[in-house]
Structure formats: C-alpha cells, structure tokens
Amino acid sequence: MIDVRDRLRRPRWGEALALVDGRVEVRDPVWIRAQGIDELVYQAVFGSPPERAEARWWIYGIAQALGVIPASIHPLYAARGRGEIPPTFTVPAMNLRGMTYDMGRAAFRAARRLEAGAVIFEIARSEIGYTDQRPEEYAAVLMAAAVKEGFTGPLFLQGDHFQVSAKAYARDPEKELQAVRDLTAEAIAAGFYNIDIDTSTLVDLSQPTLDAQQRLNYTLCAALTRYIRSIEPPGVTVSVGGEIGEVGGKNSTVEELRAFMDGYRREVGEVVGISKISVQTGTTHGGVVLPDGTLAQVAIDFEALRALSRAARLEYGLAGAVQHGASTLPEEAFHKFVECEACEVHLATGFQNLVFEMLPAAFREEIYAYLRAHHADERKPGETDEQFYYKTRKRAWGPFKQAFWELPEEVRGPIREALEARFALLFERLGVAGTRELVARSVRPVPLLRPIPMPTAETKAEEVEGLAD
C-alpha cells in the first residue's frame, strides 16, 4: 500500500488537501473539481494495485468532505410504505455499464440542475463481470463524478440483481449462496447500502400451490436479508429488495405477491425486511431487437403494475413494485410508471444504445470485429448482424474500458451532453425533479470512514509484486 500521505507532499496537492484527525479536509475545492479529481479517478481505475487503493481512499474522503455520502434509500421507501410520502414519483435506478465517469457526470449534472435527489446508481452481479467494474471501483468513480459536477447529498449505490443462478444452485447450493453472500459483503463495504436480492430464478411454477412455487424464493430471500442485517454498518439500515417474477418470463400477479410476502414474513422473523419488490409485467432486459436493428414495441401490463404496487404498499407497507427492463421504452411511456405508482424503475440498455450510436464509426467497427472474433458462439441461427451486435455489444465494455475512457473530449463531450438530456427527460417524466429536499428530510447519511492505510513490510512487498504485474 502506498502511503496516502505522500500525495500531500506533491506539488499542488498539499495546498488543496489536508488530513485532520484522520479525515480529509478539502482546502481548494475549485482545483480539485477542475483537475485533481480527474487525475485521482483515472488512477483509481487504471493505476497499479497500490495506486488504485490510494486514489480510491482519497476519492472516498474528498467526496464525503464535499457532501457526497453513500446512503440507504430505506428511510424514504419506508415513509412511502407508511403513507407519509405520496406515491407521486418513480425512482430511476440506472445501470452505468461503461464510460461510467462520463455517464455519471451527465447524470449528476442533470440531477443538480433539476434538484433531483431520489436517483439510484446500480450495477448487477452479471454486469460486474463483463464490464470489469468491482463495487469499490464503481463507487469511487461515481463519487468522483459527483464531486466533479458539484452534486451534494446522499448517494444511493445499489447492487442490482444479486442473483442466485438456478443452474449453479442445482449443482452446489451452498457454494452459490456463499458467492452471493461474498459479493453482498464486498458491495456493502464499498458503500452499496441498497441491495436487490434476486432468488426469483428458483421459483418453480410446476408446483401445485402459489406458496410451494414461491417457497424457495422467499426462504432464501429471507435468509439473505438476515445476512445483510448482520453485516450492515452501525446506523445504516440497508434497503433490501426482493423479486417474485423473473424478467422476461410470466407476468406477476397480486396472488403471487401475497404468497411470497406471507412466506417471507414468516421466514425473516423480527429483523427489518424488504422495502420494495420487483415484478414482471411484460418487459425483457435490453428489449427485443428486430432483424433490421430496430426495437420491437414493448407491451407492459400497466394495470398489473398498478395492482401490484398498491398491494405491496397498502397490504405490506412496502414502497411499491419495481419495474425492470424499461430503458428502451418510448419517451411518452415513462410517466405511466408514476401513474401506476411504481416505486422504482431500472434503466440500462437505453444509455448503452445512445453511446454506441454516437461512437466514431472506426471505433465501433473495432468493437464489432472483437465481438465477431470472441463471441461468435452466441450467434443464433438466422440472426442478422444487427441483432448479433445489439445482443453482444455489452460484452465490449470490459475489454475496451480504457479505450472508451480515453476517447478524445470532442467525442466524449457530445456524448455527455446527449446523456444529460436523456437523464433530465427521465427525471422529469418519472417525477423525481425537485425531490432533493424530500430526500434530505428522510435520509440521514452515515459517513463511510476508512482508516488511513499504513504501509507495512507485507504491503510493501505486495506493492512491488503489484508493480511487477
């Protein structure tokens, strides 16, 4: 581990930052936002292992000194479930798969301009792998983006679809559950105080009763909830979500929700339970692409969504239902989530599509050549090039992470502007513009204090090994 105090002896850094009783003090926020944070965030992602650790420590400290603090949205959702906050907005939960610093900057710029506080940034278990973004990196990059754009307030980081794989569970149940527990612990340590448990993959529709169909789902969801409560930081109640219907499968019903919730409540006992529930009402992740590359129209059952949200809130005190796979819907559809009282909507592929549409043609072709060479086995018979690229291009985020990051400003600048416009439209349509004050009244973030890393003989040896790598 590099001694973090060495940075204070570098030109300009010692004037901008200080350590006071183990806490970071920002003495020149203008310089930090204009230049320093850019240097730190690049090192936090692409530096050697000891450089990454040092840069991330400073980013966490700077962010919190400037009012950007990881937080749980649970108090806001609990108040909504109690009827103290009306269901007049739907929280966007945004998966930033790549160009995360630029995407984050665009989102924070829109949020600051519109006074939007009820927004979530998330990454799914599967995305962590193919985008090459572990939770600590993702958190550091988003904190840096918030600092860069002058955003302040609670930062809601969420583990999306921390999913139990049905195939892996069938092979070795305990190994798969331990993998989810390990990822959950890693995420919470990084400041992800919002975790969506997804054991809906284990719903067995062949069983004769709804309780039997949902039993493994609610039993494991309850067990993982209890685990989260055992490791959450003092003063933090992690917002936990459950799921009753696999996205892309059979539409959920109120009766299924009741079967899940009644069983879950029996199993979870006295600990604080979930604050929301994900349902299936007709979407698929990423949308359905037609042979010519256009997207098929999605038929969401909004009345089912309304019924599920109301049952979740009025019968079980949850914030409401969560809608997945909605980012490719037409713009005019988003206000319907508010009308149907959905508490949260998950958005990912639409942002990816916007970026790919604006990439330089040569760079996009380089990516597509990589996909043809490394993911040809994913191509189905009769699939057009457009369908193949659309389906697999998400897998380019990890291998091309640095290339995306280092695109010239004349490319990244217009992409940020287009993303900001998209985020702003979503924030307005989903009713979260103007929610900053509402969030401030409900959520009291607990600072995530990290001790100053102190080099030892062992860490010095690790540093040499890391540099050799």
Describe the protein.
There is one protein chain. Strands 4-5-6-7-8-9-10-11 form an 8-stranded parallel beta barrel, surrounded by 8 helices. Mean pLDDT is about 90; it is low at about 285-290 and about 455-469. It folds into 2 domains: about 5-65, no CATH class; about 70-350 and about 415-440, TIM Barrel (Alpha-Beta Barrel), CATH 3.20.20.70. It has about 475 residues and is of the alpha/beta class. β7 (about 195-200), α10 and β8 form a beta-alpha-beta unit. The chain has helices spanning about 15, 30-45, 50-65, 75-80, 100-115, 125-130, 135-150, 165-170, 175-190, 210-230, 255-270, 300-315, 335-340, 350-360, 360-375, 385-390, 400-405, 410-430, 435-440, 455-469, and strands at about 15-20, 25, 70, 90-95, 120-125, 155-165, 195-200, 240-245, 275-280, 320-325, 345.
Helix/strand structural class: alpha/beta
Helix content class: 40-55%
Physical arrangement of strands within the biggest beta sheet: 4-5-6-7-8-9-10-11
Radius of gyration: 22 Å
Low-confidence stretches: 285-290, 457-469
Average of the residue pLDDT scores: 92
What spatial form do the alpha-carbon principal axes imply? globular
Specify the oligomeric state: single chain
Per CATH, the class of the largest domain reads: Alpha Beta
CATH superfamily of the largest domain: Aldolase class I
Strand content: 5-15%
Number of strands: 11
CATH topology of the largest domain: TIM Barrel
Characterize the main sheet: 8 strands, parallel, barrel
Specify the CATH architecture of the largest domain: Alpha-Beta Barrel
- Compute the number of helices: 20
The N- and C-terminal alpha carbons lie at a distance of 15 Å
